[in-house]
Amino acid sequence: MVFFQLAAHLEQGKVDPAQLKSTWEISPKSQKADYSALLSVSLEAGEIRRNLEQLYPKFTIYKRGREVIRALDEKRKSDSLSWKPVKIDKTIKVGGSNNSIPVIRQRLQFWGYMGQYEPEDPKVYDSALFIGVQEFQRKNGMEPDGALGKNTIAGINNSPLDLIGRASVNLERLRWLPDTIKEAEIILVNIANFRLDYINKMDTIFSSKVIVGQRYHASPIFFQHR
Asked: Which of 222, 191, 192, 194 is nearest to 208 (CA)?
C-alpha cells in the first residue's frame, strides 16, 4: 500500500492542484505507469528505489532540485545559527552602522559567501562585508549593488530549512506538469528575480529582464494548449 501511494505521489504529485485556491490552473495528471508491475519488478531485482525513480519528472531541473535539497540538508546538519528575521527601516550601505550587521555577516559566512575575519567594529558595514553581499546577490539573481535593501535582507533571512521547504514545493509543482511540456513552447517568468525566459523544447532561446506585478495587478500564471 505504501509503495502504491509513493508511486502515485512521484508520478502525479502529492497534492491535487485543482483543489488549491490559487492562480495555478493545472489539471490533475492521470496515472500512466502500472504500479503493480513496477512493484513486482522492483522486488524481483531488489531495486525498489531505483525503479521508483522511473516515475520522476523527466526534467533536468527536477534532478537538480533534488541535488539542491540534499546539499541544503547537509548544510542544515551543521547549522547552529539563530534565524530570527532581520528587519531594517532603510537600506544599509557601506560605511553605515546597524545592530543587525553582525548577524548578516555571520549568515553570509555560514553560506560561504565570505571568509571569517575580525572586523574593527562589528556593527559597521565594511568593505569585506560589501564583497560578500555582492556575491550573495549575484548568486541569487539580484542586482549586485552591495546595498542591503528589503529584497537582499529577505534572502539573507532564509535558513537552510526555509530553502528546503521552498525547493520541495517547487519539486511538487514540477510533478504536476504534463510530460508533453518537454516539446512545448514556454514563456517562463521567474517572479523572484524579474527574469523572463522563452523556452522551446526545453532549450532556452531568449532571456530578458521584466517588470513583475504587485498583488493588486499580479503577473498571470496560465497554460495555453494548442
From this structure: 194
Residue 126, helix vs strand vs coil: coil
Q: How many CB atoms lie within 10 A of CB 123?
A: 13
SS3 label, residue 39 = helix
pLDDT digits (tens, 9 = 90+) for 82-133: 999 999 999 999 999 999 999 999 999 999 999 999 999 999 999 999 999 9
Average pLDDT, the chain: 88
- Residues written for the chain: 226
Q: Flag whether the pTM goes above 0.85.
A: no
pLDDT of 225 above 70: no
Judge contact between 69 and 164, C-beta under 8 A.
yes
Paired residues of 204 in beta bridges: 199
> Which of 204, 190, 176, 210 has its CA nearest to residue 26?
176
E strand map for the chain: 185-190, 195-200, 203-209
Cα–Cα distance, 90 to 127 (Å, whole number): 19
